[in-house]
Design a protein that fits this description.
The complex is a heterodimer of chains A (103) and B (146).
Chain A (H helix, E strand, L loop, with lengths): L4 H26 L5 H17 L1 H6 L6 H9 L2 H26 L1
Chain B lengths: L4 H24 L11 H31 L14 H23 L4 H28 L7
Helix pairs in contact in B: 1-2, 3-4
Classes of the chains: A mainly alpha (103), B mainly alpha (146).
């Protein structure tokens, strides 16, 4: 498969994409300090995001509405996922140790 | 040609993480805003949507790994979660990113201290994960030979 043209194309595209992302991050991190205009642009964009994006919508949720109720109630899933992950990990550990002993 | 599920999960994971990195770094501060041309609304939508997909992909990967151990499921070398050093690092950094990201999402309204702490953890984990991906590409550079 690794010699197929489509696979080469896929790998080259993804590798180039990641190198561009890493290059952007390096330039932004070690480049010049942003100008006042750029800082202003970013702050304005963040303010617009507060109103228009999912972040903004979640902040505007009315207390006691059905969606807010569902969101608060579904937060119980977070510890359930954590516990599930813990038990899954223990199961794998037990299975490995047990399997090795049998062999 | 028959392609296994781990092949799809691997490349979906790569594309998802790439978009998460792109949108996430743009949201990080004024220094990084130009990465998404200061369109932070799109960055916010993209980051949250891709984050949900990222959690699903991690769950699928862990499930595949459990199946591999329990019922001896055959998987190829494309899996992200496993016993290899890079696989363990990927799992740990992903868990760190997801847990800190969840806290950022949840604590935004009521706990500024938790939010600030999780943001720092999220940023450090993102830098490490991006570095590890570049290292991973370098390790697998034989695939890039034409």
């Amino acid at each position: 498969m690794q010699n197929e043209t489509w696979f080469k194309f896929l790998v080259w595209s993804m590798a180039s994409f990641f190198f561009f992302v890493a290059a952007c991050v390096l330039i932004a991190t070690f480049g010049p300090v942003p100008s006042q205009e750029q800082s202003q642009l970013w702050m304005e964009a963040m303010m617009a995001t507060m109103e228009k994006s999912l972040m903004g919508y979640s902040m505007q949720l009315e207390e006691g509405s059905l969606l807010a109720y569902l969101m608060y109630e579904s937060s119980v899933l977070i510890p359930l996922f954590a516990l599930g992950g813990l038990f899954g990990g223990l199961l794998i550990r037990f299975q490995r140790t047990h399997g090795n002993k049998i062999k | 040609m028959r392609l296994n599920i781990d092949f799809y999960v691997h490349w979906l994971w790569a594309a998802t993480f790439g978009l998460l990195a792109l949108s996430g770094f743009a949201l990080m501060g004024a220094r990084y805003g130009w990465i998404m041309n200061y369109d932070l609304t799109v960055a916010d939508y993209l980051h949250r949507t891709m984050a949900a997909l990222y959690v699903v992909l991690l769950a699928v990967s862990i499930l595949i790994e459990i199946l591999r151990i329990l019922v001896n499921l055959k998987v190829s070398r494309f899996m992200m979660v496993g016993i290899g050093s890079h696989q363990v690092f990927t799992l740990l950094s992903t868990l760190l990113l997801i847990i800190s990201g969840l806290f950022i999402w949840v604590c935004m309204e009521f706990s500024v201290v938790s939010l600030a702490f999780c943001l720092v953890i999220h940023e450090i984990a993102a830098f490490l994960a991006l570095g590890s991906i570049i290292w991973h590409i370098y390790q697998k550079n034989h695939v890039l030979t034409i």
